[in-house]
Amino acid sequence: MTTIEPGMGDLAWVFPDWPAPRGIRAAVTTRHGPGVSAPPFERFNLGLSSGDNIDAVVANRCALREALGLPSTPRWLQQVHGTVVADLGPLSGEHEPQADAAVSRVPGTVLAILTADCVPVLFASDDGHQIGAAHAGWKGLAAGVLEATVEQMQVSPQRVTAWIGPCIGTASYEIDAPVRDAFVHVDASATDYFQATRPGHWLCDMAGLARHRLVRMGVPQIFGGDFDTRTDERFYSYRREGARSGRFASLVWLEG
C-alpha cells in the first residue's frame, strides 16, 4: 500500500498498491485535504451523519471530486451494517441507496465507502469491466457482505482481485463474546483471529477475518490490510474519537 503526496498542501491520501486492470482506479482519503470541516472534524470529513456541518461536508465532497479528477459524483450509500449490495451506474439525482456494498459495470461510475474503523474492501474483475466496494463492520462481515459483493459481480471469485483498506488494528480492537461467537459458531477456523485478553474478551483481527473470508470464497489475489485507524491519526476513528468522529472514504472507479 502506498501513500502519495499529490502536491496539494498537506494532502496525504492512500492509493492502493494492487494489480488492478487498466481503467480501474482507487483511492482512500484521510482527514487531511482541501476540506473546510472545523474541529473536531478538521478538515476533510465526508460523513453526513457524523454531526459535522452539512454544508462543510457537501463542500468537502465537491473538493474530493475535483482533487481526484473523478469522472462522476461518487455513489454514496446509506450504510446500515447489513449485506445488501446495490448495482449502480453514475449518479443521477441525489438518491443514496440503503446498502453496505455496491458493484458496477458502467464506465464513469465511482463507488464510495465511508468508514472510521470498519473494514472497507475494494474489488476489481480481471477483465477490467467490473468493480465493487464493501463496508464491513463486524456485523456485516459475519453476515457475509463480502461474499454477497463478489456474487453480485457476476464473475467467478477466481477472477476477482480484492484490496482491504484501512481499518482498526488487532491491538486496538477488544471485543466481547457475542462478537466472537458471530464468527466462530459458523466457522471454527475463525478462532485464529481472536486473542484472549481478560475474561470474556478478545482482541479481534478484522483485516485478518476479511482476508480469511475472501480466501474461503476463492479470491486468489488479496492485498492491503496494513493500517490501524485507531493509532494512525491521519484517519478518523470511532474508537478513538467517539460519536463525533468523522468519516474517510475508500473509492474505486471505472474510468469513463
Helix/strand layout:
Layout: E1 2-4, E2 13-15, E3 24-28, H1 54-68, E4 85-87, E5 101-104, E6 110-115, E7 119-125, E8 131-136, H2 138-143, H3 145-152, E9 160-164, E10 174-176, H4 177-184, E11 194-196, E12 201-204, H5 206-217, E13 221-224, H6 238-241, E14 248-254
Parallel strand pairs: 4-5, 9-13
Antiparallel strand pairs: 1-2, 3-14, 5-8, 6-14, 7-8, 7-9, 10-12, 11-12
Report on this model:
By secondary structure, the chain is an alpha+beta fold. It has one domain: CNF1/YfiH-like putative cysteine hydrolases (4-Layer Sandwich). Helix content is 21%, strand content 25%. The protein has 6 helices and 14 strands. The chain has helices at 54-68, 138-143, 145-152, 177-184, 206-217, 238-241; strands spanning 2-4, 13-15, 24-28, 85-87, 101-104, 110-115, 119-125, 131-136, 160-164, 174-176, 194-196, 201-204, 221-224, 248-254. The strands form 4 sheets. Strands 4-5-8-7-9-13 form a 6-stranded mixed β-sheet. Strands 3-14-6 form a 3-stranded antiparallel β-sheet, with no helix packed on it. Strands 10-12-11 form a 3-stranded antiparallel β-sheet. Strand 11 (194-196) and strand 12 form a beta hairpin. The longest helix is centred in the first third of the chain and has 15 residues, at 54-68. It is globular.
